[in-house]
Fold this sequence. Notes:
By secondary structure, the protein is an alpha+beta fold. It contains two helices and six strands; from the N terminus they run βββαβαββ. α1 crosses α2 (85-96). The longest helix has 13 residues, at 34-46. The two termini are 17 Å apart.
Amino acid sequence: MNPRIEFFVPGAPAPQGSKRHVGHGRMIESSKAVGPWRERVALAAHSHADGLIGGPIGIRLKFVMPRPKSAPKRTTPPAIKRPDIDKISRAILDAITGVLIADDSQVTDLHATKRIAEINENHGVHIELTQLHEGP
């Protein structure tokens, strides 16, 4: 049986973007929101952790983005605006590294989707992590 972990982290997904040089060899994240977001994800992951999962890992990320005030009340438009799905996925992988998995290089199967929250739906990310079989 494959170890499988599923949980939801509420909040506005923040992108792990570029870093910028601030002098004396120091680099800081361009996004101020990514640090607190990664901490929130790591805390939620920690409550589901029972040691690090080894071997190849499959991850499914379902991002539910905050609903803009300008969104129509009867329909939900597609989530085609920023942040980029690869950058919000990177923030999740970095947050769970050292908590659920030893290194994000273990991820051999990654699926990510993003959509705008329906009316009265919480925004955040649904995370599903599965240990995959090694070998063919």
